[in-house]
Structure formats: C-alpha cells, structure tokens
Specification:
Shape: globular
Number of strands: 20
Mean pLDDT: 96
Low-confidence stretches: none
Number of helices: 14
Strand content: 25-35%
Structural class: alpha+beta
Helix content: 25-40%
Largest sheet: 8 strands, mixed
Strand order of the largest sheet: 6-5-14-15-16-13-17-20
Radius of gyration: 21 Å
CATH class of the domain at 5-71 and 96-177 and 268-351: Alpha Beta
C-alpha cells in the first residue's frame, strides 16, 4: 500500500486532519486499533472553541454541529457564597464557545470519511512505525491475520497518550514534562435537563463540581474525588446527594436527577512532550500533550495541532514549501504551553487541596481578584474561548 500521509488514530484529531487533507486532494490512509463502536463509545468533553468550530466548517462537516450545537456566550464561577458570570462575548470582541458532544462530532467526521471513500482501516493490530527519521517512512500492521506495509511521505501520530506514535520515537530525543494532581473527576451523564443554560464551575470546601451539558435534555456533571475511589462505590443516589451538597444555594433547587447513562473516574494530569516532530513523524493532540479538563482545552488543543499540520502539509504539497513542516513543533508548542498554563491555573483556582492556611488565602485572593476586575475577567474569557491560531507561513 502507498499513500501520501499515514494517519495513526481515528479519533477526532485524526479524522479531522484526514478530512481537511482529502478536500485538498492529498491522499491519506487512517489506521485505528479499535472498532468504530469503541471509538464512538468514548465519552469526552463537548465545549468547542471558536477556532475549532471554524475548522470544522472548513472541513465541510459542520452542518449538524451548527444546527444542534448550543452557543454559549458566558459561564459562571461559584465560590465563597458568590456566583460570578464571565461574559465571554463582551470581553473578547464577540467570541463564544459551542457546546456539542465529542461523540456527535466524531460521528460526523466518521460519516464524512465514509462518504469520501478515502481509506480508513479499523482493528489494525500491532502497528509499527519505521524509518521516519530517514526520510522513507513506513507503517506496518496486521489486519485479518495478514501483515501489511504502508509506504508514505509523512506520518501523523494522532493515537493518543497511550498510542504507539510517541512510544516509537528515540527516547533520548524527547523530553517529557508532567504534573499529576492528587484527585480525579467523577463524571455522570444523564438524560435530564441542565441545571442552568450555561456551565457552572464550583469551588466548595467539600470539593470541586462542574455543571455542564450536551444538549437541552442531556446533562454532564462532575465531582472532584479521591483517586482511591472506585466508580462502583458511587451509586446514582450518592452522586446526586453529593452534587447537591456542593451546589450554590441559588441553583440547588433546580437540580433534576435521573438514572445515569454513564459514570467514570478520570485522573487529572498536565503533560507535554517536546519536540513534536521527529523526521517525518508528527505528534498530534493527546500523543503530545494532556491537560486537566478544568479549562476545556483537551480536544481544542488537538484541533490547533491539526490546523498547524494541515496548513504545513498543504503548503508542502501545493507550494513546495517543505520548510513549513520544520516549524510545526515550534508553532504548536507556543500555544500548547499557554493552554497548559490556563488549565493548570483553573485547576488550582477551583479545586480543594486541603493545603496550609496561607495557600487557601492565596486561592481566595485569586478568586476575588480575577472576578472583580475587568482585566481579570478578560484574561479568563480570552483563554476560555481560545487563543488565536498562529499563521503557518
């Protein structure tokens, strides 16, 4: 087999990159280790920055997103008996975010890939990356008992934190930066109306909570929990009771409870691998970086990687600008570290750490300052809606 760009991973970043390149006449083959149902079964975030929304439109897969997505012009921060709204639209010159579930977004991209006729191979086992440092990259894999080799010009590693792409690079040529947080998020998905029209982030002495949604009839709630907790320890009744105890008084009475569709516990970590380019292999999204979900940056940060690599590849094939690919890692990392900072900061601002009294007072001061000044609110708003994508030139 031969192609121009081999894409490892059929999550949102791999599918979006494939769709964008296909529309530019650039050949791609996508390899995915799991089944389509498994990919769609991953319950993930659903807050999309305006830059991601624009990229979906450029990819020609925004029709359902635009029709069903919920535009949010602001969100609330609740702490110390107060609730403060961050008016993103007015503070950023008109920018908002769009709430649209990652499962639905992935489904749209999978449908677009199928309709395009471009190859995507699910259940590709034992994937190995070869010779990407030597200018003649190949990918080998097993499908239905047959060992297949795929020759390509470039490899895009879009296969996540545990994928084969980052594991394939020379370990003496990559540096990892990591912070692991001493708690996780217990999430519950339910077919119940959201408690508010916009997201509510809550700092409470009992622990952080987040009231989110996927639609007007489907809610997503999160609770800070110990890493020693197990999902089986949390009945629906226990979850709803604890959530109610952490809610601000002005909205607690609005909570509608119901059976959970899904419950899971996710540990929180910050992680960045540098660089993101190794010869003709490019790490994309979670393969190169992880953020705690507090700032709603995980999927959005992957999309900015896709934007950068897409434009660099388009310039390479259409304009002979191979130098653009040399800039990929540098451009991506500038935005990544800013998003890492914001996600870390939101995590420190809103979670309960049971720290010393000095640290607790500093946290209170941060909460007060950033919500009581236009400068502070603007900083939160412009980071939440997403910093601009850097031009690839």
């Amino acid at each position: 087999m031969k192609t121009q760009v081999a894409i490892i991973g059929a999550g949102p970043s791999g599918l979006l990159l494939g769709q964008l390149l296909h529309r530019q006449g650039i050949e791609t083959v996508i390899l995915e280790a799991k089944t389509p149902d498994y990919v769609l079964g991953r319950i993930r975030a659903g807050v999309l920055e305006y830059g991601f929304v624009d990229l979906m439109r450029e990819a020609g897969v925004a029709q359902r997103m635009d029709a069903e997505g919920l535009v949010h012009d602001g969100f609330s921060l609740a702490f110390q008996g107060r609730r403060e709204r961050v008016d993103m639209k007015s503070l950023t010159g008109g920018h908002s975010v769009l709430v649209y579930g990652q499962t639905e977004l992935t489904r749209d991209l999978m449908d677009a890939r199928r309709d395009s006729g471009a190859p995507i191979i699910y259940e590709a086992a034992d994937v190995e990356l070869h010779d990407f440092l030597d200018g003649k990259p190949r990918v080998s894999f097993t499908k239905d008992g047959e060992r297949i080799e795929l020759e390509c010009d470039y490899i895009a590693g879009c296969d996540g934190f545990h994928g084969v792409s980052r594991k394939s690079v020379p370990q003496d040529g990559i540096r990892n930066f990591e912070r692991v947080y001493p708690f996780g998020w217990l999430g519950l998905l339910s077919d119940t109306p959201p408690i508010e029209d916009e997201l509510v982030y809550i700092h409470n002495p009992r622990g952080f909570a987040l009231c989110s949604m996927r639609s007007h009839t489907r809610s997503r709630y999160y609770l800070q929990c110990s890493l020693a907790e197990h999902v089986d320890d949390w009945s629906d009744d226990r979850f709803w009771t604890e959530l109610s105890a952490r809610l601000p008084e002005d909205i607690a009475g609005k909570l509608v409870t119901g059976p959970s569709l899904e419950k899971s516990i996710a540990p929180l970590r910050s992680f960045v691998a540098e660089p993101m380019t190794f010869g003709r292999l490019f790490l994309v999204g979670d393969a190169a970086h992880i953020v705690p979900p507090t700032g709603a940056k995980g999927l959005n940060l992957a999309s900015s990687d896709v934007y950068t690599l897409y434009h660099a590849l388009r310039g390479t094939y259409h304009e002979g600008r191979a130098d653009l690919l040399d800039k990929y890692s540098e451009i991506c990392l500038r935005r990544i570290w800013k998003a890492e900072r914001f996600s870390w900061w939101m995590t420190m601002l809103l979670h309960t750490f049971n720290d010393d009294p000095f640290s607790e007072r500093i946290q209170r001061a941060e909460q007060d300052y950033y919500t009581s000044t236009v400068a502070g609110l603007t900083t939160i708003a412009e980071n939440y809606v997403g910093l601009p994508y850097e031009a690839v030139e």
